[in-house]
TrEMBL record:
Fe cation binds at residues 180, 239, 306, 486. Pfam families: RPE65. The keyword Transferase does not apply. Belongs to the carotenoid oxygenase family. The keyword Iron applies. GO terms for biological process: carotene catabolic process. Its cofactor is Fe(2+). Keywords: Iron, Metal-binding, Oxidoreductase. GO terms for molecular function: carotenoid dioxygenase activity; metal ion binding. InterPro entries: Carotenoid_Oase, Haem_d1_sf. This is Apocarotenoid-15,15'-oxygenase.
Amino acid sequence: MTTTPTTEVPFEKIRAAFARGYQSQRQELAYWIDEVEGTIPPDLHGTFFRNGPGLLDVNGQRLHHPIDGDGMIFSMAFANGRAFVRNRFVRTKGFLEEQEAGKILYRSPFGTQKPGGMLANIFDLRLKNLANTSVTYWGGKLLALWEGGEPHRLDPYTLETLGLDDLGGILSPGKEFAAHYRIDPDVAGEPHLVNFGSQMKLGIGFQEDATIITIYEFDQAGKVLKRHAYRIPGFSVLHDMAITPNHCIFFQTPLDYNAVPYVLGIQSIVQSFRLNPSRPTRIVVLPRDAEGPVNIYDAKSGFIFHLANAFEDGTKLCVDAVSYADFPQIEPGENFLDLDYRRFPAGELWRYTIDTNTGTVDRTFLYPGTCDFPTLHPQNQGRPYRYVYLVAAPPGKTRWVVQTITKLDLATGATDVWNAAPYGFPSEALFVPRPDGVAEDDGWLLSLVYDGEQHRSSVVILDARDLAQGPIAQLHMKHHLPHGFHGCFVPDYFGPEA
């Protein structure tokens, strides 16, 4: 993958290259990577999983929004300086039904309607579990996650779908289990997985809308240790949370919701949302122990989707989040392949500092550019930290497609950048600590990168201490994977004998 300054290439060519990454990938493949630029670190051992939409159409009927695509799990297993790649669809009930029918049977949350207009969609409130947002390997289970329903369990070696998983009976049918879990690295000497589910309770008559947030905490073996439900006033769209040793933290975006167009089959759920800038964003701080208090703080209005990290500082809580001035929206008449991303609000990284004594919230700007998908060293989850890694627009571009992986030093404000321009488009960069690493940035970053010129994907391995030197290795695949979302790296090797 060659890199060229973005300024030398017209934006339309870059936009068109990015749009090619939304072509469906119908093939399910498995093979050893035999085209490697550079050298795979010999002590990089384990498996990189990632989730995202694999199908952006059903038998030629194109989806209206890429987030409506059926989930496809990707894995790359590393051992002895070699890598084995595999991709496979999550065979959800809806996926199988639509493949058999050869047409769209379900409305989707972000924009896709069934063919036939209003009459085909009116009063049909069913949603397909897309299983397309994230993936985790925990307690011996590989789970594909989507916050609108239960996880799907997969075989970690073959990626075969084994069915819905109720996590030992704690999830009832259709119960939400979010895609954005967090792993606390040290709870009495062992890591815990913390996640949540949220459910809307629409007010009737004079009753106020409310959101039920359920917090789950699991030990290493996958046993649920804590399960607490909290009723929060108001309508909420919750995709992510941050944790500290004592708190779970959510951002309740001030969205207005008119359900009538959705019920009448005119538009999707998400197209019925509008940001209301006259109302504040509310920061909801829930205790990880049921006995603690629930606190809600007002902050500047904005749309918050992804959180980087949070930590406790005496009587203050610090939360770093990507904030948008407005809700990014694809309208009913738009084609997402033709979008001019320069018109969308920029995602900006801010620090929200909550003074728990006074109840006030201060906001500090951290990064001057379009960015998203923040990640960090896993040992600093919920703790004070210095480095955050972002997928960001090229330097100097405030509204652009993301083409760089950027390291931000929160202590000095300095940045270190690897730029995949003009036709490379990185996804979320996962931090993998070196086995003998000590420093916070002593590790590798793994990112699945789409090459819009070659129409294929590669896994890029970067030295997290020095991104500007370029990749340690680029592992070129024989096919492309559509732009995707979230993943994980585990030290277990789930590949054939190396």
